[in-house]
Amino acid sequence: MSVATAEPAPDAGAANYFFAGSTIRSWLLTHDHKRIALLYFMSITVFFFIGGAAATLIRLELVEPAGWLVSSDTYNRLFTMHGVVMVWFFLIPAVPNTVGNFMIPLMLGARDLAFPRLNLLSWYIYTLGGLFTVYALLVGGVDTGWTFYTPFSSMFSNSNVVWALVGVFITGFSSILTGLNFIVTIHKLRAPGLTWYRMPVFLWSLYATSVILVLATPVLAITLLLLAIERIFRIGIFDPSIGGDPLLFQHLFWFYSHPAVYIMILPGMGVVSEIIPCFARKPLFGYKFVVWCSMAIAAIGFLVWGHHMFVAGMSMYAGLVFSLLSYLVSVPSAIKVFNWTATLHRGWIRYDAPMLYALGFIGLFTTGGLTGLFLAALAVDVHVTDTYFVVAHFHYIMVGGMVTAFFAGLHYWWPKISGRMYPEYWARMAALLIFFGFNLTFFPQFILGYLGMPRRYHTYPPEFQFWHVLSSAGAAVLAVAYLMPLGYLGWSVFRGKPAGDNPWRATGLEWQTSSPPPEHNFAVTPTVTRGPYEYTPDPVPQNA
Amino acid sequence: MPDIRAPAIRPALQFADLTQERDVATIGIWVFLATEMLFFGGLLTSYAVYRHMFADGFTEAARHTKLIIGTINTAILLTSSFAMAVGVEAAERGMEENRRIVVFALTVTAALGVAFLALKGLEYYQEYQEHLVPGSGFAFGPRYRGPAQLFFLLYFILTGLHGVHVTIGVGLVGSVAAMTRRGAFSTGYTTPIMIVGLYWHFVDVVWIFLYPLIYLVGRSTQ
Amino acid sequence: MNRLQFWPQSASAAATEVDHLFIALLVVSFLVLGLVFGLMIYFGTKYRAGSTADRSDEHLKSWRWEVAWTTVTLLMFLALFFWGGDLYARLYRPPPNALDIYIVGKQWMWKAQHADGQAEINELHVPVGRPVRLVMTSQDVIHSFYVPAFRLKHDVLPGRYEMLWLEATVAGTYPLFCAEFCGTDHSRMGGRIVVMAPAAYERWLAARGPSSTMAQQGEALFRQLGCSGCHGANSTVRAPPLEGLYGRPVPLQGGGTVIADDQYIRDSILLPKSQIAAGYAAVMPSFAGQIEEEDVLKLTAYLRSLATAAPPPENPPPENAPPENTPTRAPR
Fold first, then answer.
1. Burial profile C51-74: b = 16 or more Cβ within 10 angstroms, e = fewer
2. Angstrom distances, CA of residue B218 to CA of A133, B67, B148
């Protein structure tokens, strides 16, 4: 039950959080969730560009069928580091640890998360893990693929596997602590009147994400630990010569890594569920359905890991069961797409940049999700698994979906975080360029996959070159498009128009305090009397 | 008599009152324990898989574990949980009047934890001497050499991880005991004692799962 | 840039069936995308801010829509599941008259062995119109045997045998790829599948054939490696007779039975202590590390050739054999 009383914060009326203390020490030892969010934002941006640099080299190399830019060993290290960095150091923390950290207490009407020091510790742990991974990169990289399959990773690879494993292992604890913090905060720090069904969907999504974070990540931790032991001591439980089963590694790895993809996408879906009602000036269609679909995705998502192993040597019956469950897990996502679309009906729709990104998300996520149906169909998967079809599928969801949603949230809440408006014209241009560049990069990869082009290939038969050239051209466009927000968002911090408390005229609690918010969020703890999306189309704030 | 050394306890800034702070801490520790269950769960799953695949090998290998040390250690841990429970209960009934009991109970808990670790160390040493550490020095009959190594790998990793958790627990219990002695807690504020207590009980429960899986396999037919 | 492809070649009837399912999936996807995009564009235009469309507030009963689109989605998904699952299940049931070919993957090449002893590297010749069963293993790490033209792929694992079967219907040459990352030259671990008309295939076999079949090579290995020393007719060591063994149930020490299949033979050679036949002492040495995977396959082929032979009459156990307290041990 929410219990917070309406007690004035100690320094209400002080300068906003950004200027409350300007020493480096005040930033590095902060307890303020908003500052920690910015620390994370800085880190994930650095990692995004590291992973992006690897991607650039990969796409450059693939313009020619024979290796021309790098050696095979280097290429193998490039795609591995691209995967490791993008999954663990960008996608998983992106929305939860930047937007989530910033907005959760604000949306709840609270002064901070339940465990502010734990929040700071999470960032330090993440950074430490990141340093180990960068170290692995600097001393020559890893070449096992981000999936670390045994026995190649345990016994045959000549690369710096253990350093990378240590880096990811450590960062996993950052995920776990973040999830723990969010779950407890959402349970216990809701403002008076903020019942579960009055919470914005973004909070429900982060709650579902946090459940997965705390339950799945420990399994990754133990799996990587076992692999590290096997690699260091040259004996382990996956070693076929003593009876160990390489498939056990795959089961343990995917038991985490499949829910991990829901860790990546659920927050993005939450962002979109905030933006669509605001820019369509209408309540979200089917709020309870959307909310319970998020929970269903989290739950069923734990039961489908075997769909990564249809040709790995599992029994046929296991394959059938996992295929059926994989179809079932797709249903809630489909329901959400229909609900978002239905929200537009009879709306009053504006096309500001956040809305463009959100609509782009729906299109690209739906496309990616539909290709998931192809992969869940066993007989088709036998042909396309381990090909570029899968690469295209997950990039549609993770980049077309998740990165787009991240940008949507960034633009939507930028005025709240920075107090400034970004330049709308450039933001819209970037959104359109990203949409175009993305499709040009990844749609040809579906064709490549069905043609039979396997993934993780440094060289390839010449008949595939046409599609690779198209894909690399798209990647060039994407590279430019992703640099644009870095430019204009940075510019807006200094020269952007002051945003005011609620430039979008939204109903959430976060918009009922100043932009940027004061250090302790609210001068007086708000009392909630309304649901989250009462757009009539004039906004009725939650604490009206 | 009020303890004049105890400072006035205020909840942290984000909480409205101490009750909320305690509730938050309670949920927090339970969520954390859930993550620990999944952490050990991965190892126990691996154990279950290989036990199924190599039933005879595991049975034979388990006969080489040190039943006496293991059983004594089980008794030690169970007793320590009892001591911990006494400490938590005493603290909640009245910190001021029971402070000495609490400190004593917590100290006994930590001491028993240290005893557990000492015996475990002795056990590891003996197993090292008997060449039961997997790797090139592993000595076992040829028939079950592979599965026995799998068993002992899981044994060392499971008990090793558990030992790490016991060590952390001893540190936590010791700290809380010291804090209690210094008067950092009052009847209205015993949250850290309660949280550490839950952690310690969890570590004990993990051992209760490990004990039969490691020491009792195949003993009835020996 | 070479000839531009939009669709992979199709070399078997099963491949065409997969294509049909794929096309159905494409149709469904385009319909759904059309619906979603269409509605988004329609609503997005009609209800854009400032338009004069009617927005009178009749609250649509949301749950009716929810149930409707959930049900339609679920039914469609179930149909796709059954279709895909059915095709997949058939991949696991090779017809009885299939030709056996043995594949060993290793960093970074594929080796194929035909029953009559022909060996190939990075190439596999198969006849049109005849089911072919591939029995596959890996010498080192996990690889994956992938032939896009058949729409078939299966991982090959060290220490295990995996099976894939196919029936080619169109003669031609088709690419073979490794599809599981396996190290430096993963992308160069490819080859060709050559599908030939039956007569041409027979000619190729004859021209290419070595002097001995796999089974004959296996028999030679059987003597070379000393197997006949214990398992032969005049041995003084009591070892299970291997005539008539293949494919029969074997009672194990400690209870339970196992069928003497390829995996069992392989495990018996490389990990002999893992499953002791009931009534025998665990004295067989392991050949792990002394024998290549292809040689294991040759020995298995030899034992398969003995499958219909009768077991020799039982010899009385020598005096120094361990005491027996288990029931009959001869395979029936």
1. eeeebeeeeeebeebbeebbeebb
2. 44, 12, 13
Q: How far is CA C150 from CA A192, A410, A450, C81, C166, in A?
A: 63, 46, 12, 21, 7
DSSP 8-state secondary structure symbol assigned to residue A86: I
Q: Could you report the per-residue pLDDT of C303-323, keeping only the tens digit for each?
A: 888 887 666 655 444 444 333
Mean pLDDT of C165-173: 95
Residue with tokens 């990069």, as numbered in its chain? A441
Q: Do B142 and C254 touch (CB under 8 A)?
A: no
Q: What is the mean pLDDT of chain A?
A: 94
| Residue-level pLDDT at B141 | 81
C50: Cβ contacts below 8 Å, ≥ 6 apart? none
d(CA A210, CA A199): 16
Sorted by sequence, the CB contacts under 8 Å of residue C42 that are 6+ apart come out as: none
* Residue closest to C330 by CA, chosen among C305, C303, C308, C312: C312
Among the four given CATH numbers 3.40.50.2300, 1.20.210.10, 3.40.50.10490, 3.30.365.10, the one describing domain A28-512: 1.20.210.10
Of C1, C47, C177, the CB nearest to A454: C177
Which residue of C3, C6, C26, C47 to mutate against A (max A Cβ within 10 Å)?
A: C47
User: What number is the average pLDDT over the span A475-492?
Assistant: 95
Render pLDDT for B1-33 as a digit per residue (tens, 0 to 9): 444 444 456 777 778 788 888 899 999 999 999
| β partners of residue C110 | C105
Contacts of C282 in chain B (CB under 8 A): 142-143
With a cut of 50, say whether residue C332 has pLDDT above it.
no
Whether A66 and chain C come into contact, CB under 8 Å, resolves to no
User: Average pLDDT, stretch A44-57?
Assistant: 96
| A14, pLDDT greater than 70 | no
Q: Among A13-22, A180-189, A348-357, which is the least confidently predicted range? A: A13-22
Nearest CA in chain A to B134: A235
Q: How far is A314 from chain B (nearest CA, A)?
A: 14
Q: List, in order of start, the domains of chain B with CATH numbers.
A: 27-215 (1.20.120.80)
Domains along the sequence of chain C with CATH: 8-32+69-210 (2.60.40.420), 214-305 (1.10.760.10)
pTM assigned to the model: 0.91
Query: Greater confidence, C75 or A16?
Result: C75
Suggest the residue from A180, A248, A255 to mutate for an interface test with chain B (most B CBs closer than 10 A): A180
User: For every residue of chain C, which 3-state class applies, written as one string?
Assistant: CCCCCCCCCCCEHHHHHHHHHHHHHHHHHHHHHHHHHHHHHHHHHHCECCCCCCCCCCCCCHHHHHHHHHHHHHHHHHHHHHHHHHHHHHHCCCCCCCEEEEEEEECCEEEEEECCCCEEECEEEEECCCEEEEEEEECCCCEEEEEHHHCEEEEECECCCEEEEEEECCCEEEEEEECCCCCCCHHHCCEEEEEECHHHHHHHHHHHCCCCCHHHHHHHHHHHCCHHHHHCCCCCCCCCCCCCCCCCEEEECCCCEEECCHHHHHHHHHCCCCCCECCCCCCCCCCCCCCCHHHHHHHHHHHHHCCCCCCCCCCCCCCCCCCCCCCCCCCC
Chain C interface test: which of B56, B58, B150 (most C C-beta within 10 Å): B56
Q: Which residues of C touch A239 (CB under 8 A)?
A: none
Q: pLDDT tens digit string along B137-155?
A: 898 887 788 899 999 999 9
Q: C253-296: per-residue pLDDT in tens? A: 877 788 888 888 888 888 787 788 888 887 788 887 778 888 89
What angle is formed at CA A301 by the lines to CA A296 and CA A306, rounded to 5 degrees? 150
